[in-house]
Specification:
The protein has about 160 residues and is α+β, with helices and mostly antiparallel strands. It has a domain of about 60 residues. The chain has 1 helix and 11 strands; from the N terminus they run αβββββββββββ. Strands 4, 5, 6, 8 and 11 form a 5-stranded mixed sheet that branches. Strands 1-9-10 form a 3-stranded mixed sheet, with no helix packed on it.
């Protein structure tokens, strides 16, 4: 009786491994599990879990203006130009006090925070095939999102990777 149980265990072990191998190479996913959210650029430490990030700070006048432009940089990469008016990127001031008109940007890909930008250019590398929503917010040095008249200062652009 020991041999049949041993063979059963060996069969289950190798069968399971073979099943995972086939699933991984075919791109199969379990229902309800979204693993295609930019794993190459996904940073768990950068998640927006509320706190200061959920708070709005009035930007003052004149209010900053934000525009986004994408430039191809390879098959699955894009260079993002974050064009701003009435705003200065302030990498030295990060985590410091709010200074009107100064700060940085937060980048969200499909609703997940992927990076901070301390200047007007960012490379988005190794994006998965498909259409993605990129949202950029302007943030004060204390990471609160800037707003004008209670409206968050942010811009959204579609990123299409074929």
């Amino acid at each position: 009786m020991a041999k049949p149980l041993a063979f059963l265990g060996i069969g289950l072990f190798f069968g399971t491994g073979l099943g995972f191998l086939v699933a991984a190479t075919s791109g199969a996913q379990l229902e309800g599990h979204d693993h295609d959210h930019g794993a190459a650029v996904h940073d768990h430490a950068a998640h927006d879990h509320g706190g200061a990030h959920a708070t709005l700070t009035e930007a003052g006048t004149p209010a900053p203006v934000l525009r986004l432009t994408l430039h191809p940089d390879g098959a699955q990469s894009r260079n993002l130009h974050i064009e701003v008016e009435n705003f200065t990127f302030d990498p030295e001031g990060v985590n410091g006090p709010v200074i009107p008109g100064r700060g940085h940007a937060h980048l969200y890909l499909n609703g997940i925070k992927i990076a901070r930008a301390y200047g007007p250019w960012m490379q988005l590398d190794a994006l998965p095939v498909g259409t993605h929503e990129l949202r950029v917010t302007l943030n004060a040095n204390d990471h609160t999102q800037l707003a004008a008249g209670g409206v968050p200062i942010e811009a959204t652009i579609a990123v299409v990777i074929e």
